[in-house]
Amino acid sequence: MLRRPRTQPFAQFLLAISTLMILGTLALIDLSRITPLVVLGAGVILLNAVIMTLVWRARPGRNTGWLAIIPLVDILACIPIRNAGFDVLPTAGLLVIFPLGWLAFAFPVGTVVAGVVLTVLLPLTALLRLDGEKTLADWVALGALPLTMALIALTIRIIARDLKRARSHAESVSSRLTHALRSSERDGAVLRALLDATDDAIAVYDTDGQPVLLNAMAAEITARAHIGALTQETPLRAVFAADGVTPLRIGPDFVEAVRAGVYAAPRVLQLGEDPRRVLQLIVRPVVHDGEEIGIVAVAQDVTDLIHAVEVRDRFLSTVGHEFRTPLTVILGHADIAIMREDGDQDRWSAVERSAERLLRLVERLIAAGHSSLDVESRSGVAHVGAVVKHAVREVTARAQERGIRIVVETLPDLSAQIAVRDLFSIVEELVRNAVEFTPEGGPAVVVSARADGTDAVISVVDRGVGMSEGERLQAFDRFYRTPYARGHAIPGTGIGLSIAASLAEAYGGSVTLDAGEPDGTVATLRVPVQ
């Protein structure tokens, strides 16, 4: 009755059923009470039930105001039935509630008032049939029924209004939810298309480690590696660590490691037997409003990139070795010419210095040609103070050309676990960079060393042009040169810091760059002490 209250036949059906029950009861009590007028009233009610059945099947959506005639006629039809049995069956007087309730629920106020007025006929006809003089109490009782019916109609009217408002609100909410659902379905389809279009494998798991969303690439990899729930202890099939030998497993420990941030940084792993694919994996928990709602894993296929890097490294190594041989010959002949003392020593010394500089560049190219996967642990012992002084002397000539002083502070008596040649290469690179990136005639470059727990710390501080945070992050990338270096034609290849960092890491140390105070750059080398 909420959607089509005027065309629903249920109130009429209930009235017809109640009428038949009352007629049956009256027939059992006193068959003489079933008068032709009572039969006529019951017939009208049953006929209206048939009419409402036809209306209900036709389901008209407009121009349904005329249907108010049916409950109004029902009220009139209830009069003879009430008068026939009210004294022995009081419930006969309640039949009028069905049509009156229908009017109050589905039709305008004027129609409801008309229905209430018609209910006056029920007690009025009974009153007129009484013999003798009518008392005041009789006339007062005459208004009791219509007044009661009016209150019932008002109650139903209020309920109908509230139900209409609730229906309107529900329809509005339903419309918004439907729109949101359709929008969500469209967004989901777009997201699925985007995820399947990318070459990266993207997988989302719930907090129990069960897969929620896998794009096409992720589905292929998980099927190939037999990856199910992340919390299930499972040896993965044909999945190895970066070394290509160590097999990987997943399970509760893996999930806890993800939550601890162990896999927040990219990890390299290898997949498959022959040919193998190299993947770079990132796995992180998904947190919303401080609550973990799942885990997302992104794997990027870097096989082609790894192969390209290997080709580049082999090229650099090959070219470097090809250059080193003739340079060694040039240096040897330059040394012989200098020893002859034939008056051309200055020119031969210039040749020797240039060749040595070129040889250092070649050595850097060869070092750059060594892939990070080829770095091995190294050993050696170096006296920090002596090596630092030697490295500073090598850069002093260039510093004097640019009018920059190099200040070496007191150096402690430290021995570090690093080969002399490698420590010299790192310190020379840091000092040379400090000199090159300080404007001519600028502030002095300060070099110092100290012990810090189990590490020897060497610092090179300049007051030069400095570097932005992004430049400091990229400074250790091979062949990276800052815009300032390119714009001012500062000599270099962009591999010195990369080599220095790789050498330090080979001994368990590190090279870092920080912003100076108030300007410039602070380069710090940390290596274990002996």
From TrEMBL:
Segments crossing the lipid bilayer: 12-31, 37-56, 63-82, 102-127, 139-160
Family annotation (CDD domains): HisKA
Domain Histidine kinase: 318-530
One annotated GO molecular function: kinase activity
Record's keyword terms, sorted: Kinase, Membrane, Phosphoprotein, Transferase, Transmembrane, Transmembrane helix, Two-component regulatory system
Transmembrane helix found in the keyword field: yes
Pfam families, A to Z: HATPase_c (PF02518), HisKA (PF00512), PAS_4 (PF08448)
Enzyme Commission code: 2.7.13.3
Coiled-coil blocks: none
Organism field: Microbacterium dauci
InterPro entries membership: HATPase_C_sf, HATPase_dom, His_kinase_dom, HisK_dim/P_dom, HisK_dim/P_sf, PAS-like_dom_sf, PAS_4, Sig_transdc_His_kin-like_C
Subcellular location: Cell membrane
Record-given protein name: histidine kinase
Catalyzed reactions: ATP + protein L-histidine = ADP + protein N-phospho-L-histidine
